[in-house]
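=== Discrete structure encoding ===
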Amino acid sequence: MSVTIDLGQVIHALSDALDLVGVDEGFHGKRTGVMALQCGQALGMDESELEDLFHAGLLHDCGVSSTHVYRCLLNELDWVGAEFHCIEGSELLGQFAPLAHLAPIIRYHHTHWDDLGELEISPVTARRANLIYLVDRVDALAVPHYERDLLMARHTIRDTIWQLSGAFFAPELAMAFLDLSEKEAFWLHLESRHLIRLMHERKRRNQPTPIHFAELRQLALIFARIVDAKSPYTMEHSLGTARLARFLAEQAGLMPETCEKIEVAGLLHDLGKLQVPDEILEKPGALTGKERSLIQRHSFETYQILRGIQGLEDITLWAACHHETLDGQGYPFRLSGADLTLEMRIIAVADVFQALAQRRPYRNPLSPEKILEMLRSFVQQNRLDASVVGWVERHLQASWQAAVGDEETPDSSLA
């Protein structure tokens, strides 16, 4: 496919997605990236190394999907379970060639300095990983104080870093941080309205790095795995939705390029769900009104994340509209039949089918026949498209296989 997208825009957008895991604290990756960049500049690193540090900071927690894990990482300075997300994140980035060189930094970004010397890694990798670790821990210490008493808290934070120098952090890196952080401006730049301005300035300065659609699909697959790992009940959901959406697009006779784009939209449709707390996704009973309102934010968050990537305008809308319905009662835009393209309608049906085919905390997976019965009822209620559901009906077993593969065994008692 001829579509070309800027890698920098994709990294910034996906950093937005990762920062959603913090729920109400949505800037951790950005602050880590900015501090790493500033420390790297103070250390005299060249522009290429600075760019790598900045991107590593933005994406360093790509192995974190769970709000529980996120809270442990921010609330405990040296959490015993930290290494798992480093391994997971490095394996994910290692699968994407344009960013694979960052994988070793991600792998060791919670490894103490006095342990790094025992590992068979290059001094450059050890230094970069340790710098990300240092500024990541600075941010963890600072989180309770942003927008409140950050300048008052900075002395305690600086003292903690100094005390850990030599054991947790390389003395050279700790000194660079301590020199920089004497300035009030260093800390004030980290507060949200100033940080957003810094991020915009960095975006404007970046030289575009084009990636082709095949690479975007590969990256979308990685982030689908991050989203799907958020809960045992959402494992494979994005992947299954994407497979089924592409299958239905092919049955509709859409052009191969459109089918590929629908698949990517399916992979990315639930990016915004990273902001939903684990306890809501895994709640066995009915949701409260407040919990339901939190769930209903996720498709708009997907829209906000993806709309910053030039060249993905159609994919962005298709992904964001997967909860819109023909009767205009869906969310987040309350679009109705005339506004909903065939691509949107296909993804909406694929999303519902795959969700019903999966186990949930309040029910077992449904059989293909029961799912079809429910899809027909949604057609009668003017929520889902009759033609798309018709393609499901004509290819029911193939639709089931596309949606779940070998993942689920349906509850035949519900058929």
Remarks:
- Confidence is low (pLDDT under 50) at residues 411-415.
- The first helix runs from residue 7 to 19.
